[in-house]
Structure formats: C-alpha cells, structure tokens
Amino acid sequence: MNSTMSAHCPSKFKSRHGFSMIEVVLAIGIFLITVLALVGLLGPTLKSVEDVERTDEVASVVNTVNAFLQSSPDIAPGGSKFDAIFSAVQNGNFATLFVFREYVGDTNDIRLAVGFREGEGGEAPIDIQAQITDFSDAAGPIYRVVLTPSSVLPEAYRSNVRNANGVYELETTLAAYEEGYFAMEVRIFAEAPPGPGGAFTEVKSPADLSGTEPIFTYNTAIVR
Known about the structure:
- By secondary structure, this protein is of the alpha+beta class.
- It is built from four helices and five strands, in the order αααββββαβ.
- The protein has a five-stranded antiparallel beta sheet with strand order 2-1-3-4-5.
- The radius of gyration is 32 Å and the shape is elongated.
C-alpha cells in the first residue's frame, strides 16, 4: 500500500537542474550594462584626476614665481629689486622667467630651477643675477612665465590699449615712475623639455606667443 502510494504521488519538492537560457541571457545583459556604465565613468574620472594634477602644478608655479619676485636674493643682490624688475620689463615691454624641475648632475635627484634668461626682453635684464642658461637636464615641462605691464597700472604710465601683440606698453622711465608698486600681468606657458643633450635656445617675445593660449594668466605686483 505504502509503496504504491509513493510511486504515484508527486514529491513535495522538485529539484532544479541549472539556469534556464532566459536567465543566463538576462544575467549576461545586466553584467554588460554594468561594465559599460563603469567604462563610461572611467573617462571623466581620469580627466578629473588629470585636471586636479594640472591645477596643482599651475598653483605651484604661481607660488614659485611670486616668491621669487618678492624675495629672491638672486635679483639685484645689494641693489633694488624693484628697480631691477621694472627695468627688465621696460626693456621691450616684457621679461621672461623660467620655472622647471631639473636633474642634479648625473643623479636622479631633482631640484627646482627658476630665473630669468639672457636675451629675453631684447637684452639681458638689468642687474638681475638669476640667469637660466641650461635647460638640458629639465625633468618635465618647462614653464615660460612672461611678465608684461598690467592694466592695473595708472594710465599715465602705460598705453590705453593693448598693442598688436596683446600687451600694454610701458610709457615711462624708472626715474619718472612715482608709484610705490609696479603691477605686472603674468602669463604662463607650458613647453616640452629638450631631452638629454638637447637644446632649448628659442627666444620668444609677446609677438611670437600671440597665437599661443597660456595655461594661466594673473596679475601680481612688487613694491618699492
């Protein structure tokens, strides 16, 4: 009796053997959608990290330039830092600083290099001893920092409009300049290093850079 009943009565629990084809297709579809969503997010995330790193680098260059102009002992040692920088910018209405990291000799040690360059501004900057002469050991971008008269200057000392090269012209001599500050527009350009044994000899004026977009522009000032 019992054996007959168990042979004809269905079990209360049915065993399942694997997933159906529909379930497998749905699972794969969900997985692919998730992967595509993550890949789509990866691009903006990498760009965001890149932007943050670039912003930090520019901020570091700005801080370096400001500190150098305000307090470097290599600018007119024993003389007037104000007079030296004013005279440098007056010569051609621009002066150029360079900021970059460089290897120390044949080692992997890196130091910060910052200074003016002979020939930038038409002639060597007057009484400025901080000269950059060698770019061959640059470790990373070379930042060309161009100083020109600022729109913040009183109009009695500068042109009313920018010239064809996009800069204001300084229309006064140091002796006739009576303000206690000298405001400058600072434009920063990033350039590739020359590489081992390479040369970085090209002198660029505001005219040469007029078609190049700076990575950052701001105003700064030095006081007498």
